[in-house]
Amino acid sequence: QVQLVQSGAEVKKPGSSVKVSCKTSGGTFTNYSFSWVRQAPGEGLVWMGRILPVYGTANYALEFHNRVTLKADISTTTVYIEVNSLRSEDTAMYYCAADPITGAKTQWYFDLWGPGTLVTVS
Amino acid sequence: QSALTQPASVSGSPGQSITISCTGTNSDIGNYNLVSWYQQYPGKAPKLMIYDVTKRPSAVSNRFSGSKSGNTASLTISGLQPEDEADYYCCSYAGSSILIFGGGTKLTVL
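Above: the input entities. Below: the structure tokens describing the complete assembly.
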């Protein structure tokens, strides 16, 4: 069973960048697609994008495609999200979530979630 | 892509049934059977409750069920219990490798 372990909380200045990691353990890394979902304080869940390590491809939600980069390192079974040009509205909990690949297709649901990484922009 | 529309809050008494609606468009919910529902307690990561509109992970109680009609998906919780009090989010595939969430619904068990 895959488990997701995320990097620790970050405090960043406006205009800077942040990189959050999500390391997997157990299971087969390339059998999953990994998405990033963020949640601002008191707000709802927002899907930011996803990466398929087996193909090295990424897709982004329209509102994030200019400021967010997703990467995957198969050798360390770790996925990353980098957010640039941070502003106060980016203060949120950032979750990585795993989506099983079945029949070479992602299933578009998340049965595994990381614990979240709090990013504060101030 | 706009967020799916959910009621901000619903409530029910223990033992009752409640239904949470999730309204999208014919570009997302109406076009794909890829709707999922998540339960979230304060300060915790979300938990998958329903996927592919009606399927339930083996560890999830059969008191939870999902359905869809047209552009609206629904989550029904029967035999409401105090531990069901949480936030619930719907989620749908919207084509072009894009996913969208609903705004969330706070369930209060009276």
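Note for the figure: The first strand of chain B starts at residue 9 and ends at 12.
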